[in-house]
Structures are given as structure tokens and as C-alpha cells.
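REQUEST FORM: STRUCTURE PREDICTION
Request ID: SP-0412
Submitted by: Lab K.M.
Chain count: 1
Length (residues): 168
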Amino acid sequence: MPDDYGGANQQNKLSHIDELGKARMVDVGSKDVTDRIATAGCEVHMQQSTLDLIRSGGFDKGDVLSVARIAGVMGGKKTSDLIPLCHPLMLNQITVDFGYLVEGTGLGITTTARTTGKTGVEMEALTAASIAALTMYDMCKAVDRAMHIENLRLLSKSGGKSANYSAK
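STATUS: Completed
RESULT:
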């Protein structure tokens, strides 16, 4: 039976789809409480002059990296308000770190979310990275509308019943 997207029905493989093919929130009630950690990342590409302004603190709106860091933490904490089927989680920690890109001009963003609970924190780490990147774009767009965000991805996860994951 085709799904809503024209492909084969994937309901037996997708945890957020019930036996009738309808979206659902996953029941995590019987899962074990474990330490769960997820790390995500993305890249913000920009002109060299924009990167130089970020380094020098030359933006009237404030310290771009500090504001993006706080926005990333706040975004990660609000994940269940933004992604409809995510569980609200009691987070132990979210970190947001920046590094200069080795190839190209821009900054890499790496976020890590931690919890002790019944479900993973991949979405919180991904949301934190994307909100930090979008905040960086917002703060710098007046001088560089050509900035772009690339490679938002899960880098690693551990904890829970499924196998640990590490991106290649």
C-alpha cells in the first residue's frame, strides 16, 4: 500500500507511525531509564569579512557566538514545543561549541545534549545546532546575506536499547 509520499508503506519500520499508518507519539513507558547523550553539528559558511567581524566583536547586536550559544541551549530545551511528536525531556545539560572550518570560511557548530531518561536526546542536539546556526545568520545577515547553513547531522548517540551510533 503506498504511503502519503508515494513510496512503499514503511509503518513497520517507523516508530512514529502506528499499524494503521497514522502519526503517533511513541510510548516510552516500558523503556529503561538510562544515561543518554547525543552530539550534533552543522556548518555556517560566510564571507571572510563576516568571520572577521565575528572574531573582532564588531556587531552592534552583540557577541554573535555568545548569543548563538544561549539561543542553541534555549532551542534544545524547547524541542518538544517545536517538533510535534517529541517527548518533553528533563535535560541534564546542553552544550554549544564553535570552531573554525578547516576547509572554507565559516564556523562549525557542535552541540551535545544529555539526559537520564527513557528516550534519546538526538532531536534536542539537532535542534540546538540548528537554532544556534539560525541565530548566527540572523545576527550577521545585514552584512552577509549569502551565508548558508550546511550539513546539519547527528554525529553520535549513546544510551538506550538501540546500538550506539557514530557518524563516519
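NOTES: The helical segments are 48-56, 64-77, 79-82, 122-140.
Reviewed by: T.R.
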